[in-house]
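Me: Here is a favour to ask of a fellow structure person. Could you put it straight underneath, so I can go through it closely?

Assistant:
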Amino acid sequence: MHLNPTPAPGEDAPKKKRDTLYLQVLFGIGAGIAVGHFRPDWGVAVGPLGDGFIKLIKMLIAPIIFTTVVAGIAGMGDLKRLGRVGVKSLIYFEIVTTLALVIGLVVANVFAPGVGMHVNPASLDAKSVASYVNQGHAQTTVGFFLNIIPKTFVGAFADGEILQVLLLALLFGCALGRLGEYARPVITFVNDIARAIFGIVWIVTRLAPVGAFGAMGFTIGKYGLHALVSLGQLLLTVYATCAVFILVVLGSIARAAGFNFWRVLKYVKEEILIAVGTSSSEAALPGLMDKMERIGCSRPVVGVVVPAGYSFNLDGTCIYLTCAAIFLAQATDTPMTLAQQIGLLAVMLITSKGAAGVTGSGFIVLAATLESTGKIPVAALAIVFGIDRFMSEIRTLTNFIGNTVGTLVIARWEGALDESKAGEILAKKRGA
């Protein structure tokens, strides 16, 4: 199953076009920055181009996840193995995201980007962040897990909730697996539908440069590059921490699993630029699932690990949460003891799992965290509101690379990786 909608004999031409997509997206990002900076009104006006592209991708995510998972599980024939994949995924996600939270907490304390600002929370206009605070207040642990269960079968697809669709796909796939040969016509039909859906994805992905142009133009046009200067210390801290996490932590994990990290990044370079250009890792989800399967990861592993990772393996969001929370405490002169910071970390272990791969979700989770702890003034969110969109870029990049590495590692851990297909990114075959 490939993004290329044409039959195998005609795959070469579309693949050649595919190879230049990252250059087109890069051009779109650069053009968006230029338009947003020199003509801010134009930048804001082209924002719907980015929104439209993300909506096009999001409308395909539910059927992609459902068909991929159903076909993979129904053809697996071993439900115990599926359970092992799920358990291993959650263990991996918990370890890596906890490490990301701890690193962000340590960095924020060591470099103290907010010290010396002396902001009085009472002087802040909290109206601009009121909607985020309300959404954050509405998020509870029990509510999050109950929300995984859709109200209706069709409702999960209508709402586009990743975890709801994943739950339905798991149940449907397991049911087909129990039916044996009786389910063969249904499985064939699901595979055919999946092939058609990925064909649509290939068509929509051609619009990625336009989407990146619109999203970046809107960001620069609305918030301006001056926002980067006013809160540059926090921005630099988050960007540097995420960069170190990607290169050192994720790079080490990939190498320990036998992968050449740089070749992995090169393999998904188009999806990386799409995610960064649109500030939404969901925009790159279909491409990631397709490429993980093409590189040799089994379909059941891809179908379970990638969608679950978009809710439970958000490394960039975790780094942002701890850095931003400690920054706001420092900026508002709110003293926090070690015990209080550990308590904050414990809360984030839960709240960070509720962030989906959509623009602005990290800010909502930050609001939920501050609301639940009650230590740092929630009104302080207004301090970082202006640059949140800029921090969304690095959050998205880190989340995406984290899920890419996680999928490869878990696939190899489970023995569900085709070594011959994966030779392109295996260090032992191409050099470390």
In short: The chain is about 75% helix and 0% strand. The chain has a mean pLDDT of 81.
